[in-house]
Fold this protein.
Amino acid sequence: MREPGIVPSGFSAGELVTFLESRKAASPAAPVADRLQPGSTPATKPSPSTPEGSTSGDAAPTVDPSSIGYEPLRDAALACTRCRLAEGRRHVVFSDGNPAGRLMVVGEAPGAREDATGLPFVGQAGKLLDLMLAAVGLSRADSVYICNVIKCRPPGNRNPLPDEIEACAPFLKGQIRLVAPEVLLAVGSFAAQWLTGTTRPLGKLRGEVYSYEGVPLVVTYHPAALLRNPGWNRLCWDDLQLLRQVMDGS
Ligand code: SF4
């Protein structure tokens, strides 16, 4: 079998599933009960300060994103100018997948392709995410809802700034409240840290089951990071097995 690193061009779902499943025998996952972190529900989210120049309070929507219905929430996001990222965006990237899905995947922020299409996780990283989900029997077509912490592309793909995160957070909170997923999967350190309310590196966070306001939360690497670091493939497989166990309730 070819040892992908992790996704060669022209890869197929079967290739990745075969690859990932080969890791199962090599690295059986521990029982979920051994990994649950009692009391790990984040008591608070990071409380970023609002630096000078913030626009987060200047153009607040007339609706409260944390308490409205799904379509009004989406409409509010699509028209949002709460932070400076509205200025350079082509599209607000709100979500993809099924709002009735069992799993919600949360990533970081749109990149160039996402900004151009208005959809999260497109391109090679998106394909890899789809294959990761397929490897554990999930699909954005029917069982998965996908979104990001930040809905508009930071210029040059820079990291979102604290005031931008603060301005956008009500949309993600609203999505989690309205979609009410059975399980959350944070991909990448940014989403993992936000949802766990910590600043620990992803390598220290992964491998455990957390709780975000009562919703089980598993974290793993961002597909784009996996594309750059094939050495993390095995760890990702372990995380996906943990996710599967949580979803199966085992
Ligand atoms: S990133 Fe979020 S808060 Fe900022 S303009 Fe876009 S939707 Fe609004």
The pocket of iron/sulfur cluster is lined by residues 77, 80-83, 85-86, 92, 150-152, 164, 167-168, 171 (CB under 6 Å). Residues 162-179 form the longest helix (18 residues).
